[in-house]
Amino acid sequence: MKKLLIAGLALGMAGLAAAPALAKPYPAGGVTAEDVAAVLRAKGLRAEITTDGAGDPLVKSASERVNWSVYFYNCKSGRCASIQFSAGFDLDRGITYAKANEWNFTKRFSRAALDDEMDPYVRYDVDAEKGFSTEAMELAVDTWLLVLPGFVDFIGYDP
Prior knowledge:
Elements: H1 2-18, H2 33-42, E1 48-51, E2 57-63, E3 66-76, E4 79-88, H3 97-106, E5 111-114, E6 120-127, H4 134-155
Antiparallel strand pairs: 1-2, 2-3, 3-4, 4-6, 5-6
Helix pairs in contact: 2-4
């Protein structure tokens, strides 16, 4: 009986050791640039922390041979309530409003926008203010990494 109990405990401990790390909640108020950069780096992505024109944090990264950024909004005491993944594409002839609207009407987790030269941008917003965690941040990055190549294909961009 004692050997059976020890074997059971050993199996239980092995199962716990193999379990994925539990999500770590971020403090109330959102995320920091360092929080976002840590998740990007853990996924093998570049993460350069800088600031945008308004003085808010900005994380620059790249995947699929496309440069993109994470913008931070509603920041207080270093924590930001929301973030936005964004990539812009300088195309020779841009795309039409109809093409951008096609993306917007058929996709849930991102939206297309056009600049004054009709160059497309794809953006994905994430609310991180209440109840956000490392696991939620990883999911946001994973979603972005699905959205981005889809948009690249959609606009016919060849990096």
